[in-house]
User: Which sequence fits this backbone?
């Protein structure tokens, strides 16, 4: 399971909330944390997002991998930023990053991809007169969200295979099979979508 | 009814399928042959995934080259690797995805998907990528059956399955109302089929009932 998780079934108020307003809130929050530069305000925004996890009753098996990933990323980013720009700026950058990623992950954990796709389709429908195909844009968004899980799975298998051959420190042993498998997956997915009549409508 | 009328296919300058001339109207038809023998290319021609460079393929009278969109409403396709077919994160969403453009409301699509999944013992809420190999292949089958096609083409659908799931999947194919075209290397699974076509070097070299066709194929590769 990828740390930036996909939908976790549940009946909380966040699960029941419509996808459109939730998506708008996440976008607004992401914009706000870029504009804010007070660690206190950013800390408040992060606390609000964490409260969302409590409200949504996200189980530990889903939030723990996310915490682990965010801690690793934060430590690296903080160290670099501290060295370059000082401790306060480093804290601000890390808080922005963690808040935005945690909010995006909370959105995907509490929203079905199908609902996201339908919302995107609704939003871009007025552009139909300019030749935009809402169902294709919606599908693009859905596949992008799905790609997180798929690529994580491929990366895990490729890493395991490299390790089995004693090549776990070789970038080539990871990058080459990862690219080949990703491209092959894209090819097969395209064929499967064509077989299901996607693009025919 | 599937008709191949003088069909050939060439990739660049390499002929991969030549002179396929046959009609398939039996309920259970299988294609066997070595890797690269052209059987998967011919199977892909049935729903227009591959268009012949020579001749015509027709399904229920519809030409796959000029009426591909209509043909795909009649023909479902199940691939070898179900992971490549899963588009949505949960089983229910993935099956409902097939019904987009069907005119049904979102609720109706979800209900229809749940109904089909229930027939095969799958939970619509289950994360699709966390299903077992056998269940994923069932999900791929459900995502096609929900469209109620007349023909179902399955390209080596049992290759990644264990023996129990192989048998179960093949038994399920036997129970379907659809005409089934199965591409396979599992010769043991062909007993209940009506007709088996053996491919070699892009041509149909034998076309018979299962026992005779399998015997021919075993002699060919020995």
Assistant:
């Amino acid at each position: 399971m990828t740390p930036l998780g996909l939908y976790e079934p549940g009946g909380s108020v966040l699960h029941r909330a419509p996808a459109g307003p939730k998506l708008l809130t996440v976008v607004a929050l992401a914009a706000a944390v870029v504009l804010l530069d007070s660690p206190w305000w950013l800390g408040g925004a992060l606390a609000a997002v964490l409260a969302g996890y409590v409200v949504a009753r996200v189980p530990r098996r889903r939030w723990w991998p996310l915490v682990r990933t965010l801690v690793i990323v934060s430590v690296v980013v903080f160290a670099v930023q501290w060295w370059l720009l000082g401790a306060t700026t480093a804290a601000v950058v890390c808080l922005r990053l963690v808040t935005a990623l945690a909010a995006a992950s909370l959105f995907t954990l509490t929203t079905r991809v199908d609902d996201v796709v339908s919302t995107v389709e609704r939003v871009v429908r007025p552009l139909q007169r300019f030749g935009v195909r809402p169902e294709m844009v919606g599908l693009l968004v859905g596949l992008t969200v799905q790609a997180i899980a798929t690529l994580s799975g491929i990366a895990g298998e490729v890493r395991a295979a490299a390790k089995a051959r004693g090549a776990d420190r070789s970038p080539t042993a990871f990058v080459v099979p990862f690219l080949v498998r990703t491209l092959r997956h894209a090819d097969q997915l395209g064929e499967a979508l064509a077989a299901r009549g996607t693009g025919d409508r | 009814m599937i008709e191949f009328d003088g069909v050939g296919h060439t990739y660049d300058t390499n002929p991969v399928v030549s002179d396929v001339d046959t009609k398939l109207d039996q309920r259970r038809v299988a294609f066997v042959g070595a890797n690269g023998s052209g059987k998967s290319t011919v199977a892909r021609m049935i729903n227009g995934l591959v268009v012949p460079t020579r001749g015509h393929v027709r399904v229920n009278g519809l030409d796959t080259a000029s009426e591909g969109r209509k043909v795909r409403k009649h023909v479902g396709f199940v691939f070898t690797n179900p992971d490549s077919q899963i588009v949505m994160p949960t089983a229910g969403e993935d099956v409902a995805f097939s019904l987009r453009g069907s005119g049904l409301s979102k609720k109706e699509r979800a209900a229809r998907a749940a109904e089909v999944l229930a027939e095969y013992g799958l939970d619509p809420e289950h994360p699709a990528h966390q299903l077992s190999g056998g269940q994923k292949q069932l999900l791929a089958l459900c995502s096609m059956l929900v469209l109620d096609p007349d023909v179902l083409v399955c390209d080596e659908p049992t290759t990644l399955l264990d023996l129990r799931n192989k048998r179960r999947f093949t038994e399920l194919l036997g129970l379907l109302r659809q005409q089934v075209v199965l591409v396979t290397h599992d010769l043991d699974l062909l007993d209940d089929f009506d007709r088996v076509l053996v491919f070699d070097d892009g041509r149909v070299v034998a076309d018979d009932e299962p026992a005779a066709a399998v015997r021919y194929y075993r002699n060919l590769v020995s």
